[in-house]
Each structure stands twice: as C-alpha cells, then as structure tokens.
Design goal:
This protein is of the alpha+beta class and about 325 residues long. It is about 50% helix and about 5% strand.
Length: about 325
C-alpha cells in the first residue's frame, strides 16, 4: 500500500513558493547593492552595466546566486511534475524500475520512491497532459538543468551568474509555466512564506506592503515583452495607485516610498481603473489635481474614502 500520494495542488504550491523565494532573495541582492551605492540607478545598471562596483559585487555574490539558480530549476521541475500529477500521480513513477516482493504488502511512502528523471519531464508532460511546452522553454529548461547540475556536483560553473539575468530568467519561466496566473497576486501571497510574515501586524508589516514597496524595482526588471505577456498591458502605459491596496499595506510600512512608485492600476475606461494586484475595478473621475505641479487628472471617488484623492501623487482634494 502506498501512502502520502502527492496531489498537483500541493506540488504546484511548493513550486511557486520556491520560485518566489528565489525571486525575493535575488531581488534583495539588487536592493542591497543600491542601498550601498545609491549613485548606481537600477535602470542604468540594466541598460549599461559598466559600474566597477557592480562587477565586483556580482563576483562576490556568486555563492548566493548559485543557490538561487539551483532553486529556480527545482521549482521548474516541480511545476512540471505538478502538471503530470494532475493527470495521475503514478505518472511520476514512469520509467523507474522497482523491485517487487512476494511477501505481504506493507506501507510504502511515495516520497521514498524514485520519480521520473528531469531530462524526461518535458516529453512526459507533452505526451500525457494538455499542457504544451514551447521550443524556447525546452531549450532554456535544458540549459538551466545542465548549469544546475554543474553547481550541485562541482560547486562551480564556467561563467558568473548575473543578478538581472537570473531575475529575468525567473520571469520567463513564470510566463511559460503559469500563463493563467496573476504574477503580482502570487508575489503578494508568497511573501507570506517568508520569515517576515511572522511579524505581520497590519501596521508595520503586511504582505501587500512588501509587494508594493518592491514594485517600482520589480517592474523595472521586466522587459517590455515580458511585461505585456505577464500583465496583458504595455509596460509604458500610464499606471495609477490603487487606494485599496495602499491602505491595506499600512501607511507606516509604505511611508518612506514615493506614492507614484506604487502605481499598479490602469484605466479600463474614462471612469474606471483595474488594479493588477487585487484585480478590483475602481471608480474615478477625470478632474485636474489641485496640487500645484501635479499634472494628474485621475481622482478616486470611492465612497469609503473621506476625500477624493489624486491617484498620481496622492494629494487629497478639497
């Protein structure tokens, strides 16, 4: 008898948890660098990474980057196994030879059985599920698997892993493996798997607050193509702050961040916004902001807030 048979929801949850753990830790390396060398703008590092401090920093962070790179591949493999498991968990045992006994049956823990090799995962998923991988995904998956093996078996690679490249690799894999999910909503949810979640009090720390505070840097990492594929809108399209998410975050956590940096909602009509995180429709009016110097003209008119608020700068209107 086999016990602890996996289910696809649990496997997929673990895959996403590892994916966003690798994202969070790699992004932290980027923000820590910026805190030490504030003269290095992240946008400039992406477009023209010539800073000598940046090259030195990349070299010194290889031990951590190797670990996050390996974790990314483990997440990819678990995501593919989850797709197989959705059809049948026993597909995970394909191609594995087991010795059978003529003695009375005893309990066998599924986790102790050898499962399908990573090299065979893509073929199995394409053969037995309704999910089809692309050629570009297949190549990237193979390249990352080989690199991960070098890291695990030799503790080294022939080339350094770049922080920006790793973050964008994570985005590409998310787009391929979870095309129907909401990236920002998932980012918020999996903040709750970290150590900080223990301190969530709705005042000084919230999961939505962490997501909003890192959003300005996160969206800089996305290429135009990745942004469009992930969120369904152009990266250059003007975005506004969602007051629902802003107030849920708690002002104390977000007070040190510029209001416009947390813009994650976009116009769907002349009188409505849609938030990329909470996915709510937000009623707005199109009036000029009363703050001198602000060119915003999208004002929140939700009844739950006392004053109409400019969703470009945060100024409360009279």
């Amino acid at each position: 008898m086999i016990k602890n048979i996996p289910n696809h929801e649990k496997l997929n949850d673990i895959a996403l948890s590892q994916h966003f753990f690798a994202w969070e830790k790699t992004l932290n390396l980027l923000t820590e660098f910026q805190e030490c060398f504030s003269n290095n703008d992240i946008a400039d590092l992406i477009s023209n990474p010539t800073s000598p401090e940046w090259y030195t920093y990349i070299g010194e962070q290889q031990r951590s980057l190797h670990a996050y790179y390996a974790l990314m591949q483990q997440s990819n493999e678990l995501a593919l196994k989850a797709k197989l498991c959705k059809v049948s968990p026993y597909l995970l045992l394909m191609g594995i030879s087991h010795k059978f006994s003529n003695k009375n049956a005893k309990e066998i823990d599924f986790s102790e059985l050898k499962t399908i090799n990573a090299i065979d995962l893509i073929h199995a998923v394409n053969s037995f599920t309704d999910f089809t991988t692309t050629n570009s995904f297949n190549q990237r998956f193979s390249d990352v698997r080989k690199m991960r093996n070098k890291i695990l078996h030799l503790g080294m690679t022939s080339s350094d892993i770049n922080i920006i490249c790793l973050l964008r690799e994570l985005i590409d894999f998310y787009i391929e493996l979870w095309p129907d999910r909401n990236w920002l909503k998932d980012r918020k949810h999996y903040c709750g798997y970290g150590a900080n979640s223990m301190f969530e009090d709705g005042k000084y720390y919230t999961q939505i607050g962490q997501t909003l505070c890192e959003w300005n840097i996160s969206q800089t990492i996305f290429t135009k193509k990745q942004f469009k594929e992930t969120f369904g809108i152009e990266k250059t399209r003007r975005k506004y702050v969602c007051l629902n998410c802003y107030y849920e975050a708690g002002r104390k956590q977000v007070s040190y961040h510029e209001f416009p940096d947390m813009s994650c909602a976009y116009l769907t009509s002349q009188s409505s916004l849609r938030c990329l995180i909470c996915e709510k429709q937000i009623s707005v009016s199109r009036n000029p902001c009363q703050k001198v110097g602000c060119n915003g003209n999208v004002i929140s008119v939700e009844e739950e807030y006392i004053f109409p608020t400019c969703l470009s700068c945060g100024f409360e209107q009279e």
